[in-house]
Design goal:
Mean pLDDT: 79
Number of strands: 8
Radius of gyration: 18 Å
Low-confidence stretches: 9-68, 308-324
Order of helices and strands: EHEHEHEHEEHEHEH
Number of helices: 7
Length: about 325
């Protein structure tokens, strides 16, 4: 979650930011409120605009690669869980004054998708962006958009995020007393559903949801702060979640987020991670984005390693672990 000078920071507010209780009014011109202040319906109607936008590259095949849950939702061109890791660059560390260029560079570097961190300033200290930025990124790329809601009581925001173009929406088990209902709402909106665990939350907290979700995100830093080192306790948690999953049949992807770089990526993969979220080790100004992704792919044995050749000789490698 590292945030450079041009990246989304806590000071980023205005119409695209998540304000207070994360109500999306003002971000969805002509499309309604996306939910009032009261309790949302557990089964909201699918957003009117979701069927007309372009889907992710490779979409249109079966509901999900073999080995994943078969409960429907948008097709994602990722390897089946357990068959090889991929890297998802986190746009929180990108230079937002050159967002289109950063997205194109991630595509050229073989990114499997893009990770977007929505923070409300309440569940985590920082305030970043909301559905307006998700929609802008959707217009820039056909890569899958993996939207991570670090938002207290995220239910009122789900419809706006889905309509903005999210393919996967992840909510924290700590953020709502009705996480199962939130997962159902995400599915009813036509998106893939994920749940996230903070470092202090035990793996057993997701056990009742293993058959309901497409993704389990293990945070390897405390969310909301930049410049943090990878927490080794995340490795044991990844192993614990993996041990809960069935040996055969549908199972969710395991994702890890925070401090992922060329040193920590292979450790996370060995512990069971399928999806590696990397921010400051990709967008850092020390080397081209394509070069940084190439190095990450090589270190992790991730798919996409051949998508971009290394940059000019002498390009400086990213530094030590940092919060993503």
């Amino acid at each position: 979650m590292s945030m450079g000078a041009g990246s989304a920071q806590g000071a980023v507010q205005g119409p695209g930011a998540v304000q207070g209780a994360a109500h999306p009014q003002g971000e969805r011109s002509g499309r309604g409120s996306g939910g009032g202040k009261g309790a949302p319906s557990p089964t909201p109607a699918a957003p009117s605009g979701s069927g007309s936008r372009p889907g992710p590259a490779g979409a249109g095949g079966p509901g999900r690669p073999a080995g994943g849950p078969s409960r429907g939702g948008r097709s994602l061109p990722w390897p089946a869980p357990g068959t090889g890791p991929v890297v998802l660059p986190s746009l929180l560390s990108a230079d937002f004054t050159r967002l289109a260029d950063e997205v194109r560079a991630a595509e050229a570097g073989g990114a499997a998708g893009l990770h977007l961190d929505v923070m409300d300033g309440r569940f985590v200290p920082n305030l970043t962006f909301g559905p307006m930025i998700v929609a802008a990124v959707r217009r820039l790329t056909r890569l899958p958009l993996d939207v991570h809601l670090m938002v207290e009581r995220p239910e009122p925001l789900l419809a706006a995020v889905a309509e903005a173009g999210a393919d996967m929406i992840t909510v924290h088990v700590e953020a709502t007393p009705h996480v199962h209902r939130a997962v159902q709402m995400i599915r009813d909106l036509g998106c893939r559903a994920g749940v996230a665990l903070n470092p202090g939350t035990p793996a057993v907290a997701v056990e009742p949801l293993l058959g309901e979700v497409d993704l389990i995100l293990v945070m390897s830093v405390n969310p909301g702060f930049g410049g943090q080192a990878f927490l080794p306790l995340a490795l044991e948690k990844l192993r614990a979640v993996r041990a809960m999953l069935p040996a055969a049949g549908p199972r969710p992807w395991l994702e890890v987020d925070g401090g992922i770089d060329v040193q920590t990526a292979p450790l996370a993969v060995a512990a069971g991670a399928d999806l590696l979220v990397a921010g400051s080790s990709v967008f850092n100004g020390l080397a081209p984005v394509e070069t940084n992704l190439h190095r990450l792919h090589q270190a992790a044995g991730a798919r996409g390693a051949g998508a971009a050749a290394p940059g000019p000789a002498g390009g400086q490698a990213p530094g030590g672990p940092a919060g993503e």
